[in-house]
Write a structure and sequence with these properties.
Mean pLDDT: 93
Structural class: alpha/beta
Number of strands: 10
Strand content: 5-15%
Low-confidence stretches: 2-12
Number of domains: 3
Length: 351
């Protein structure tokens, strides 16, 4: 996959797609609602377009209707996104298939963002510790009790490039149960993917690299016992002053979780700002700039994000809905976001 096919003349990422009939189409669409043509996302050009007789839709579209990407050359059955998923839910269960679709939809948006930022996206075929995904369910999905104790619980997490997502996170009522139980202001499937990808990219871009020392200066020493730190977090809760140093309470639990949460929020920022820029949105006379990173662009990105987040929250309140970004960014947190920004910018410049 390449980000080159997405770029507008100003170097920003095109997120508004248009069918040949002139109708606006969206990243998740598989059919144009105006002319009825079948649509597929072309990962080679990173664009959504009508399917031609030369194209092949992903096997997960043909069989289960959970994907709208096209397959590249060769004899592969699955598209580049679905090929990264090692284990999927039982496709004989209709409810699980619907939830599987929601998880894959979020995963595809993550991959779109990673390629937009020119980050390395390599599967297990390219490297032993490459990205892979498992989408699994446990008994909590059937009992409709997200906090119940069950045998063999599926834990959402990351291990050596393998990201596991519990299928129940795609069920709104169960995800809301978990959000309330964990006292979280925000919990989404896409947020899980962004957080867990932060653990992966810490290993790829930070661990053992020239910036490892700078990471420790800002986030702390990751060699601190992870088990003890998480145990203390769940027993005692975050420090009372967590908001002055961390983006979320969970970020205060351990340096690696601090980085993963900060990484996730950086992706929240850049993805949403790019969508706003593509739509021509702004505040006052100023249009939001493309957030594609250069080392010089962080201050503008942060300023734009704070303006956009304020507008988004106000719009939601006007509709009686929760704030989409219920967080505030202290100076120390902004410095951590700058670290992530510089990390991404340096990788993109060298790519």
């Amino acid at each position: 996959m390449s980000a080159e096919g997405l770029e507008a003349e100003d170097g920003s990422i095109v997120r508004t797609f248009t069918c040949t009939c002139g109708n606006r189409i969206h990243f998740e669409n598989d059919t144009c609602l105006q002319c009825g043509c079948r649509l597929g996302f072309d990962p080679a050009q990173m664009t959504l377009r009508p399917v031609t007789s030369r194209d092949r839709l992903c096997g997960n579209y043909d069989e289960w209707h959970v994907c709208n990407w096209l397959v590249g050359g060769g004899e592969a059955r699955l598209c580049a996104a679905c090929a990264l998923t090692e284990m999927v839910p039982d496709p004989a269960d209709g409810r699980r298939v619907k939830l599987w679709y929601e998880v894959e939809k979020a995963k595809r948006r993550l991959l779109f963002s990673l390629h937009s930022l020119r980050l390395p996206v390599e599967g297990r075929a390219e490297r032993a510790d490459g990205l892979a995904f498992r989408i699994l369910a446990d008994a909590r999905l059937d009992t409709a009790q997200a906090t119940a104790s069950v045998d063999d619980p599926v834990m959402t997490g990351h291990d050596q490039g393998l990201i596991t997502i519990n299928l129940m996170e795609a069920a709104p009522e169960l995800r809301e149960q978990m959000r309330e139980a964990m006292d979280e202001p925000y919990r989404t499937v896409l947020g899980h993917f962004r957080h867990e990808s932060g653990h992966y990219y810490w290993r790829r871009l930070v661990e053992g690299s020239p910036v490892h020392g700078r990471f420790r200066d800002r986030f702390g020493d990751e060699r601190e016992s992870y088990a003890d730190a998480l145990g203390n977090h769940y027993t005692k809760g975050p420090p009372v002053d967590w908001q002055s140093r961390h983006v979320t309470p969970y970020a205060a639990s351990h340096p690696l979780e601090d980085f993963a949460e900060t990484w996730a929020h950086y992706l929240h920022m850049t993805d949403t700002l790019e969508s706003a820029h593509d739509a021509g949105l702004g505040t006052g006379a100023r249009t939001f700039a493309s957030p594609l990173p250069t080392r010089a662009s962080f201050d503008r990105t942060l300023d734009d994000w704070q303006d956009l987040a304020t507008v988004m929250n106000s719009l939601n309140r006007s509709m009686g809905l929760p704030d989409p970004y219920p967080f505030s960014l202290a100076a120390t947190t902004a410095d951590k976001l700058r670290f992530v920004h510089d990390l991404v910018a340096d990788w993109a410049a060298a790519a």
